[in-house]
Amino acid sequence: xxxxxxxxxxxxxxxxxGVAALVLVxxxxxxxxxxxxxxxxxxQNHAVEDALNQxxxxxxxxxxxxxxQRVVVMPVLKDTSNGQIxxxxxxxxxEIEGIKADVPRDPTLEERATSLIKSVVNKDDxxxxxxxxxxxxxxxxxxLSVSVDKLWSGADSGICTLDVLRIVxxxxxxxxxxxxxxxxxxxxxxxxxADDEPEDTGPGFWSTAGWFLLQLxxxxxxxxxxxxxxxxxxxxxxxxxxxxxNAAMLFGxxxxxxLVLFAAVKFEFSTTxxxxxVILVPVALIWNLRMLNFIEEx
Length: 298
Hints:
The chain is an alpha/beta fold. 58% of the residues lie in helices and 15% in strands.
């Protein structure tokens, strides 16, 4: 080692090796002991989150009605994600204020709950007593069992269907336990979620037609009234006996009619507004010309 120390830069190199080794050990420690499973594809993950959001809402409602709840979360059945769904479920429940979710700490609870769940799934005539599940876990309020019915994702969508079975204890003094009916929760992602949402069809036909007619009446009224509003200016222009000034009055009134049209549509240059403007121009020119002649004669 003394000979190696005499090599220029050896100490820096060896220090770098030591730091790299520590970083490598820290990385593996994080992956093995801290980081949760990450086996789901992106769209599958979003579909699972959608399903878990629906489950979480049920527990928020229960906390509002009954107060703090201690929930034992059983292993997720038929889960091929290396436990990621259970990990996500635990995290989601513990985010709810008033919910304390944990894995089964008592082996007898897990064993008895599994036996009861199997009997419910298989629809056996004789089922174990739900009260026995909590025999050695009096502090637990509920046992939650989730089974994956479907977990799929394609190019632009994902589906996650979960079967949820809950073994709950009553809030009375005896705290009798019972099993709630199995419920199927469907989570969607991507285009599947967009298709499932109700479409906004917008205003109905009669509402749109009524608004169009109202705007049309406003424009026609503005076109009809505008020459009368310009009566004093028109008389002043006629006194000048200028063809250029008369033409300016005609085109100015027509431009004001177009301004009323686009003000009625909130200055949105849609195809309908442009077509209406093209139709309005010759009509307004003829009307304004006749009205200017009428004003000049009087």
